[in-house]
Amino acid sequence: LLGKYNIYNMLVTYILLTKLGITYDKIKEVFKELESPNGRMDIIKYNSNTIIIDYAHTEDAMQNIFNTIKDIYYNKLYVVFGCTGSRDKEKRPIMTLLSLSTADFTYITSDDLHEESFDEIVDDMLKGKDDEETVVKRFMDWVGNYPMVAHNAKFDTSFLEMCFQKYGLGK
Predict the structure, then answer these.
(1) Which of 23, 133, 151, 163 has its CA 20 to 30 A from that of 141?
(2) Residue 79 near residue 94, CB atoms below 8 Å
(3) Neighbours of 68 (CB within 10 A)
């Protein structure tokens, strides 16, 4: 288990278990077997890159993940970040700002659309950002003329189309 937040969780667990009369040796035995649940700090090595997948869905969880990544792996932090449709609309701009202000680059996408359009979700994510055009152009500069490969069943290319149409960016 990686991250200070996991250490804090384990300390609280240790204290509670000792108060319940469970021995140090038994707790140590169990702690050795602990693993993160799927979707929490899943680490994939690809060439010289470390890819970390985490389905954090609160501002606090995202901040903890970013801090852990910077403490352990940080070289450049590229975040692929999206929000789910028809849920937690108030969190979208907060979490987007966190990613934009922490990462070297944030690629904005979406998760399950549900009853919303991709554009509605992205508009909410960028709400209150005077620099929306800068964010999009920064993305386009980063991609440049390089081919993009997305291996994600939920990847939505309408964001790229919106960039081209809304900001007159050439393909």
Answers:
(1) 151
(2) no
(3) 19
Mean pLDDT, all residues of the chain: 75
34-43, 93-102, 119-128: which has the highest mean pLDDT?
93-102
Task: Identify the CA nearest to 69 among candidates 4, 128, 18.
Answer: 4
- The tens digit of pLDDT for each residue in 9-18 reads 889 999 999 9
Q: How many CB atoms lie within 10 A of CB 46?
A: 7
Neighbour tally for 83: CB within 10 Å: 23
Angle between helices 59-72 and 4-19 (to 10 degrees): 110
Are 166 and 137 in contact, with CB atoms under 8 Å apart? no
Per the document, the length of the chain is: 171
